[in-house]
Amino acid sequence: MRKSFFYLFFCEAFLVSILYLTIYIVVQQVVRQSANSPQIQMAEDTAYGLSNGQSPEILLNTPRINPLQSLAPFTIVYDIKGNVLSTTLSSSVYLPEIPKGVLEYVQARAEDRFTWQPKSNLRIAAVMTEYVSKNGGGFVLVGRSLREVENLESYLENIVGTTWIMSLILIFIFTRIYFGKKNN
Question: In the predicted model, is pLDDT for residue 13 greater than 90?
Answer without folding.
Answer: yes
